[in-house]
Amino acid sequence: MKNISYLSLAVFLVSLSSCSEKIVGTWDIAKYQRIVPGGKNEVTVTNIGTMKFKSNKTGEKEVKYSILNNKVESLTSFKWNIFDNYVTIHGADDEFNKTWIQIENSRKLQILKSTDGSDGVQVLELRK
Predict the structure, then answer these.
(1) CA distance 75 to 65
(2) What CATH topology corresponds to 23-127?
(3) Which of 19, 56, 77, 83 would you call most buried, defined as having the most Cβ atoms within 10 angstroms of its Cβ?
(4) Are the beta carbons of 87 and 103 closer than 8 angstroms?
C-alpha cells in the first residue's frame, strides 16, 4: 500500500513540474530591438534591465536605457498571461504592454516578437 502511495505522489509531482511555465523567474533583458522596413529609425539596446515573471501571473519590470539623450527609466508592476506560444503583458503604458509571440521558449532564453501597430517589429530577448 505504501508503494502505491509513493508512486502516486511521484507521478503527481512529475505532472506538476511538467506544467510549470518556463517563463517564470527573473530574466535579464539582454536585447530590445525595434525593426522598421527599410532600416529607418531602427533601434537596438542591450542589457537594459530585468523582468520578473511570478507564478501568480504578476511581475515586475525594471528598465534603464538612453537613446540620443532620451533617457528611459521605469520600475513597474505588470500582470501577464500565457496561451500556447503567446505571452500577454498588461501594466503601465509602455512598449512592453502587448501580446508577444514566443519564438524561443527555454529555461535560459526567451525570444519574443510583436508589432508596434503599424509596420514595425519589436524583438525582446530575455536571458537567465
Answers:
(1) 12
(2) Lipocalin (2.40.128)
(3) 77
(4) no
